[in-house]
Amino acid sequence: MKNFKITGDLTGGLLGAVIALPQALAFGVAIGVGAASGLWGAVILCFIVGVFGCNQPLLSGPTGPAAIVTASALATLSGKPEALFAVIFLSGIFQIIISRTKLTDIVKYIPYPVISGFMNAVGTILIILQISPFLGNKSMATPLLALKNLSISLFCINEDALVIGLLTLAIIFWTPKKITNIIPSQILALVVSTIAAILFNMDLPTVQGVSAHLPQIVWADFSNLKTLIIPALIIAIVCSSESLLTNLVVDTLTKTSCNTNRMILSQGIGNLVCSLFGSIPGSGATMRSAAAIKAGGTTRLCAIVCATILLLIILFASDFANKIPLSALAAVLFKVGFDIVDTKLLKIVKYAPKQDLFVMITVFLLTIFYDIIIAVSTGIVLSALIFAKQLADKTNVKFKDINDKHIIELEKKLQDETGYKIRVVHILGELFFGSATQIISHFEEILGTKYLIICYESENTFDISAIFALEDIITRLKSQNIIPHLVIKNEQIFEQLEKLNIAEQIGKENIFYKEEDAIEHAKNLLKIKVIKKRK
């Protein structure tokens, strides 16, 4: 079993490195500090989090949101790298401070529309910023600047760069799955595009500055400390939030639980060390971590292997890296931006409550055209106000007879008769963005249970966070071979579940309006199962 785990960590680390390589190169170039800075950021952060973080296959390094806020910080600092590295150093300090507080729990209370609006904006910004280098022109620092200069970029196209960019996109999107199972399409695209540019002696901008040497210590500029605090705080918050979200994904996939304070502490130390060696900051990377876990990664060794492989690439393949066309990296980031966009929400957008869409669009527009922290803060405040109004509108006093004693006796008798093979749980109050994470945690593992009856006591329909929370609960129960039954209060809730395809996931035959009916149905299923086993 131990050998299997080590093999899985080696495979997962290798796949993580393959995915991280083109993205780290691209993010370093996109920010404006060079490809080498991106690569070393991936090596240093992934290794330190692997050593000092939780014993999980959580891969870290430069990511889309981290790159966007870092590029924004560099723009506010008049493009001075020494000042940027001072900001990154301070952001690491802030993360270490955050790790010693209860603030690591705050991500549980960020509403889904806020996260969705932010992620959609980050994906859009990445795509906008890559238009100019994709056409063979100079990169722009901000999305507004990129849009203002779009007409100039379109009239000054480097044809060689455009051909290579289109070739890269074609390989990324249309490579058969049989091939991508062996080598990720992004790596294949970079290799083929670079070789094509070399063979045809194309005149186009390429990556520069990657050398087969260890990085040297960079002296950061702290002379104007007041201007560094706010950008540093923004980077710390964004990187910590993304790391916590990645941690939630890793916890779910591995069915483990990480100490979030320790994880953020390791991220802070990692970003602090990155600044000392002139590297860009990063966070937990969801896509890389998920891919590594699916490849067999189970422990911290996976992250250490990923960092080691990237280090070997720098030391022994730097000449090739310097010949990679910038338009090819822009194409890679087009794909990264597309993947960041929250397509899960877009699929059900016509059924989503209008107030959730309003919050998402507000956060989306503010993130692109104004400021990330203002955008997220505004989204949280709007969500809280909308939710408070909903509760106030629906709160009233009703007097009615409820046979609580009968239900209590019925459930107690049921558990005694079935030996807890059938259990009943009641979700009291509202299942909404503030309670979704806590409720999900109660369904981690229910030993011995074959049928779980979930009684949703509220008469209100679900918000988006609750819908996805319910989907997560169903998935977890089914992964443990537990058949869920759902008891709801009215047809309006059932219609919502039916529209969103959740009723089909549960099974329409397993949805009831009365707890007694659900109990009877589960008991009949259990009897049939017992009879079949006896035969």
Q: Mind telling me the C-alpha Rg?
A: 26 Å
Average pLDDT figure:
82
Secondary-structure-derived class: mainly alpha
Number of strands: 6
The tally of structural domains comes to 2
Fill in the keyword field for this structure.
mainly alpha, globular, 2 domains, two-stranded antiparallel ribbon, 535 residues, 66% helix
What does this structure look like?
With 535 residues, this protein is mostly helical. The protein folds into 2 domains: 2-340, no CATH class; 404-534, STAS domain (Transcription Regulator spoIIAA), CATH 3.30.750.24. Helices cover 66% and strands 4% of the residues. It has helices spanning 2-31, 35-52, 64-76, 81-99, 112-129, 131-134, 143-148, 150-155, 159-174, 177-180, 185-199, 225-254, 260-276, 286-294, 301-316, 318-321, 326-340, 343-346, 354-369, 372-394, 404-418, 436-441, 464-479, 491-499, 502-506, 515-534; strands at 60-61, 283-284, 422-427, 451-456, 483-487, 511-512. Strands 3-4-5-6 form a 4-stranded parallel beta sheet. The protein has a two-stranded antiparallel sheet with strand order 1-2. α23 (464-479) links the parallel β4 and β5. α4 runs antiparallel to α13 (260-276) and α5 (112-129) runs antiparallel to α17 (326-340). The protein is globular, with a radius of gyration of 26 Å. It starts with a helix and ends with a helix. Mean pLDDT is 82; it is low at 395-404.
